[in-house]
Design brief:
Strand content: under 5%
Largest sheet: 3 strands, mixed
Low-confidence stretches: none
Radius of gyration: 24 Å
Shape: globular
CATH class of one domain: Mainly Alpha
Length: about 600
């Protein structure tokens, strides 16, 4: 895609949220938030002074607290996502950066108050409260989770200090990584000797270039760019992981992973079962990659060949084609899903094109009114079609749970936050493969298997990498070389000889923001869970579409209301059974079989 074409792509409209960060409307919302936090603090102080643990006094106190708690949480979330959107679209926006810093200080006050609330819930009889308070009944699961969370709190002064220090600790390290990653400039030596420079996001377009030499040149340029900035990014990763290790230990968690599992309401046994099934799948992905190498006419893939287009793949997916295809598939599923996608386009929710200083990748921001903002970096590939479907799936989820309280929305576990997104991605991917000719099927299977490889092979690698980093960081800081070496070793173990070990990326620990979220560790296995759960949901949908649609919307509206195993059973899926994970992986395995067969038939 040319730079001009990229600039012609739609940008989102944030003025419907606030006119700008200096507007009276935004200032009034911040003033309201500060008042609400003050009221919440006063209510909690009064409750502490009375030291009540039961009876009408507790019920009345809870009903007053939960109302202010939810309103303040909703407004804090809304303003945070507004500023996140401004910064994501332009990481050099000084006004948005300043307002984010101000909001962080305000949110820290609210975090301290929330910790006091959780501690209080740990001292009262929440089971009795649920029977007499409709508001408590609506939040019953979260209240019982809060009792467990309360047992993992430090004493109040230490919790307050931790909340205040995070602003200049993990959160600051996270902002550093994001700023560096979005502002890095890649230098590429072009054929003929000319040298060109571009933002990291723009350089990604060469990953899908037909010319292998051009893919190599861009890969080497990106590798060198990351190498030049790896020291400050390594400091950021050490800072974030060090903070997670310290806080998990001081709060009495056995490990950072145990805390992540609690946040995701997932048993360790279920995660282990899923990962075992995924590790058994790695040789199948190696079969896919070896077949792709044969199709490309090379002995073995290099890392820069992973996203290479298949021979003869001259088809592109311009923005208009992409959006029409996604809407058509969404319409086939339900009028509501199709309408959501149209609304996102008509109301300018989407920022579509790559550009300097814009965050890479794709994600969806939930606003408190049930609308969303979607960021993608469209470069005309089928992977961009899947990405748009995925992010609009998040927007549909946001619509489905728009009427539940902010606390219930905020408590949506990451593994289930990926439910609608991966299901919508599966809808589009399955339709594309089914509707295609044999030639197109090979190309579309390649795109689908690339995405599956990222969600399974790369996520298994990410779990292993993050676990190793956390274990080592508990003892000391790691150097940039050590981060690179760890990632290379885990990648080599997963890919075997399917990818040339001498050209196996060691530098992709610097870019993904998921490693740098101090509030959320292990943002990797949720993608695997989401893909495989989405395949299971798709199979259920095919058996009885009409019944499924109602069940699915109900599931999306209640993802903050139960543990993962309970919620998935509502759709007839038992995630505790190894057979479920195997059945979902068998769908991908069958796609690999078909891909290998088509390659051998066409390129033998």
């Amino acid at each position: 895609m040319s730079a001009t074409a990229a600039h012609d792509l739609p940008r989102w409209d944030l003025t419907t949220i606030y006119p700008d960060v200096d507007s009276e409307a935004y200032a009034a919302s911040v003033e309201r938030l500060v008042l609400l936090i003050g009221e919440l603090e006063s209510l909690l102080e009064a409750t502490e002074a009375r030291a009540a643990t039961g009876g009408d006094e507790v019920t009345q106190a809870f009903d007053r607290i939960i109302a202010v708690f939810n309103e303040s949480l909703g407004l804090a979330r809304h303003n945070r996502w507004y500023l996140e959107a401004l910064i994501a679209a332009n990481t050099r926006d000084p006004a948005a950066q300043a307002r984010m810093s101000e909001l962080q200080a305000i949110r820290t006050r609210r975090t301290i108050a929330e910790t006091q609330f959780i501690a209080w819930l740990g001292r009262i009889d929440v089971d009795a409260l649920v029977t007499v308070s409709p508001e408590a009944s609506a939040h019953a699961f979260l209240l019982r989770q809060a009792v467990i969370a309360a047992s993992h709190l430090m004493d109040p002064p230490r919790e307050a200090l931790a909340a205040e220090m995070q602003a200049s600790g993990g959160n600051a390290w996270s902002r550093l990584q994001d700023t560096v990653a979005t502002q890095i400039v890649v230098t590429i030596e072009m054929p003929g000797g000319d040298v060109t420079q571009m933002p990291m996001a723009d350089s990604i377009v060469y990953s899908v270039d037909q010319d292998r030499d051009m893919r190599r040149r861009a890969y080497e340029g990106r590798t060198e760019a990351w190498r030049l900035w790896r020291e400050p990014i390594a400091a950021a990763l050490n800072g974030v992981k060090g903070e997670q290790v310290t806080l998990a230990r001081e709060r009495g968690w056995n490990s950072v992973l145990d805390e992540s599992l609690f946040q995701n309401r997932l048993d360790r046994g279920i995660l282990d079962t899923m990962l075992v099934a995924c590790r058994r799948m790695l040789p199948d992905f190696q079969r896919y990659l070896r077949a792709k190498a044969r199709a490309l006419g090379i002995e073995r893939l290099a890392w820069y060949d992973l996203w290479a287009p298949m021979p003869g793949n001259s088809r592109t997916w311009p923005w208009e084609t992409c959006t029409k295809y996604v809407i058509d598939q969404f319409d086939d599923y339900s009028a509501e899903l199709g309408a959501l996608a149209r609304r996102a386009l008509d109301e300018h929710w989407i920022d579509a094109g790559p550009r300097a200083d814009k965050t890479g990748g794709g994600w969806c921001l939930p606003l408190d009114d049930g609308t969303s903002r979607v960021l993608v970096n469209h470069i005309d590939t089928f992977d961009d079609v899947l990405c748009l479907a995925h992010e609009l799936g998040h927007a549909y989820h946001n619509r489905c749970d728009a009427q539940v309280s902010p606390w219930r929305r905020e408590s949506r576990p990451t593994i289930l936050a990926e439910t609608a997104s991966t299901f919508c991605e599966t809808l589009v991917a399955r339709a594309a493969v089914t509707q295609s000719s044999e030639v197109d099927r090979l190309l579309l299977l390649d795109a689908s298997l690339q995405a599956a490889n990222m969600s399974i092979t790369e996520m298994v690698i990410a779990v292993d990498f993050e676990t190793a980093v956390i274990d080592k960081r508990a003892k000391r800081e790691l150097s940039a070389d050590e981060f690179s070496s760890l990632l290379h070793d885990f990648r080599h173990a997963a890919y075997g000889d399917a990818i040339d070990a001498n050209v196996l990326s060691q530098h992709s620990w610097e870019g993904p923001p998921h490693y740098y979220m101090p509030w959320k560790s292990y943002y990797n296995y949720p993608y695997t869970f989401g893909l495989l759960f989405g395949l299971g949901l798709y199979a259920t949908y095919q058996l009885d579409p009409d019944t499924f649609r109602g069940q699915f919307d109900g599931l999306l509206a209640s993802t903050g209301d139960a543990d993962a195993a309970t919620l998935t059973r509502r759709c007839g899926i038992d995630i505790q059974a190894p057979s479920f994970w195997d059945s979902s992986l068998n769908v991908i395995r069958a796609d690999i079989d078909t891909f290998v067969e088509l390659v051998d038939r066409r390129y033998a």
